[in-house]
Design brief:
500 residues; 2 domains; 3 strands
């Protein structure tokens, strides 16, 4: 038996080990889960409200995408900086600032009287979300150091992160249909208020680490690089891949990210220490988060269009249709974290999840205009949800395990960055491929025929599912090769990553 410890134990002072804190750690998890849920569901909750918001504020369909893109641009570009700020000024302070700012931005967007104010509010949501997401995950990492409890906590957190998009669709449908589209934004005030009170009472103060410095060159290059990448993919979705602005932004983003990596190996206080990426299990987990976020849109986005546009579901019915998938994700996530992880390691669990997700997506390619929910939609959704349940909790746990306390914020931000950039790429790429498939199908056919138009739409969705399945298939191979063999265990006191 060989034992490898991948990082030194964080200093005892950095770990919340006092008995009073340990007694309330599960309440702290509830606060963390609420903060994470608020950030994740805001990526989808507004989608269902967009048609109503467009009608109310009178903006064009071409402008509509920016209500979504403004959030993802600010969020994706600032995540690494947000994680380092949490390390610099303290996780409790950062969480409180993030919750307050997110609530204020939501109120601004909800009260918008024109398109410009709505987009500004959404961008500010992204800014404060970039503080919230990595801080929440860092708090989870430093709060739960016992091996068994850490598994349970990450199972719950992974379920929230994975199910947040579906919950957003359901909640957005209910609020839009029964209240008003603005409540899709105002609802964050309720979440933020509960989390703020809980954080203020429950979280211990985290003394700033005076060794942590802000890497200005790294911050500028990675923020500009991620902004350019996300903007480039968003522009491809609304215009084309051949548009100069699209490939220009993508090229600039690639150059700046390369420069950022080069700088991180040469500055005294790097924004993203390369040692964080050196562990094989962590690298595999980050790739898994990227691929699963990209492929997930094959369900969340196109199945939403299918249910409403082809089958005629209402917003509420659409949200309810996703509930079984969310349930499967939550149940399997808990089984994975609390039972399976004792017997098999991530090398088995995560690739198996990738395989199940790919199978579920391939199953969805068989849908047509007359399929029933129970007989044809529900089974693949359950398979897909089970696959995500195996991927999410394990990947998040492995991606943050063994990171020193001083790096926990930026380490967690790296996980969130991979998710956000993966999701942005998935949205743009799948939307472009779907549109091309629909156009190709219509060549030489009667475009005035409703039946032809419906079939073209189905072809576009099927194409998106095929490509999403291919993302997960690639992820299965990569993760199967990268993850180390064996069960991963944690020291109950220091929580380094130990492989047996």
């Amino acid at each position: 038996m060989s034992t490898v410890t991948h990082s030194a134990a964080p200093p005892a002072a950095a770990q919340p080990q006092n008995s009073h804190h340990r007694r309330r750690r599960w309440l702290i998890l509830a606060v963390i889960a609420i903060a994470q849920l608020m950030v994740v569901l805001d990526a989808t909750i507004v989608n269902i409200a967009l048609p109503s918001a467009q009608k109310d504020l009178g903006f064009s369909s071409d402008s509509r995408q920016w209500v979504v893109t403004a959030y993802s641009l600010a969020f994706g570009a600032l995540l690494l900086l947000g994680g380092r700020i949490a390390d610099l000024i303290g996780r409790k302070t950062t969480l409180l600032i993030g919750l307050t700012g997110f609530a204020a931005a939501s109120a601004l967007a909800g009260a918008a009287t024109n398109f410009e104010v709505l987009v500004t509010g959404r961008a500010l949501q992204g800014v404060f979300g970039a503080l919230l997401a990595p801080t929440a995950l860092a708090l989870l990492t430093t709060t739960f150091t016992d091996a068994k409890e850490r598994a349970k906590a990450f199972g719950i957190y992974g379920a929230v992160a994975g199910a947040g998009g579906g919950i957003g669709l359901l909640l957005g449908g209910v609020l839009t249909e029964h209240l008003d589209w603005r409540w899709c934004l105002y609802v964050n005030l309720v979440f933020a208020a509960v989390a703020l009170v809980g954080a203020a009472i429950l979280l211990p103060r985290h003394r700033r680490d005076r060794n942590v410095k802000i890497d200005i060159p790294g911050t500028v290059t990675v923020t500009a690089g991620l902004f350019a990448l996300v903007y480039g993919f968003a522009n491809a979705e609304s215009h084309s891949w051949s548009a100069p602005l699209t490939w220009g932004c993508l090229a600039l983003g690639a150059i700046l990210i390369t420069l950022f990596v080069w700088l991180q190996q040469r500055v005294a206080h790097p924004l993203l220490p390369m040692r964080i990426l050196a562990d094989r299990n962590r690298a595999a987990s980050l790739i898994a988060m990227f691929i699963s976020a990209a492929g997930m849109f094959g369900v969340n986005l196109f199945l939403t269009y299918y249910l409403q546009g082809v089958l005629g579901y209402s917003p509420v019915e659409t949200g309810l249709a996703f509930l079984p998938m969310i349930g499967a994700l939550i149940v399997i996530s808990q089984i994975s974290s609390n039972i399976l992880v004792r017997f098999v390691g991530p090398k088995v669990i995560v690739p198996t999840g990738m395989l199940l997700a790919a199978c579920g997506l391939l199953w969805l390619t068989t849908l047509d205009a007359t399929t029933s929910y129970v007989g044809h939609i529900l089974p693949p959704l359950l398979v897909f949800g089970a696959g995500l349940g195996l991927i999410m909790a394990q990947s998040m746990s492995q991606a943050t395990a063994g990171i020193a306390a001083a790096d926990s914020g930026v380490g967690s931000a790296t996980v969130n960055t991979m998710q956000q950039v993966g999701g942005s790429i998935g949205t743009a790429l799948l939307s472009s491929l779907a549109a091309s498939a629909a156009s190709s199908y219509l060549v030489g056919k009667d475009v005035t025929s409703q039946a032809v138009q419906i079939q073209a739409t189905l072809e576009s969705y099927s194409t998106a599912y095929w490509w999403s399945a291919s993302f997960f298939a690639i992820g299965m191979v990569i993760c199967g090769l990268l993850y180390r063999r064996g069960v991963t265990r944690s020291d109950p006191d220091a929580a380094p990553v130990v492989h047996m």
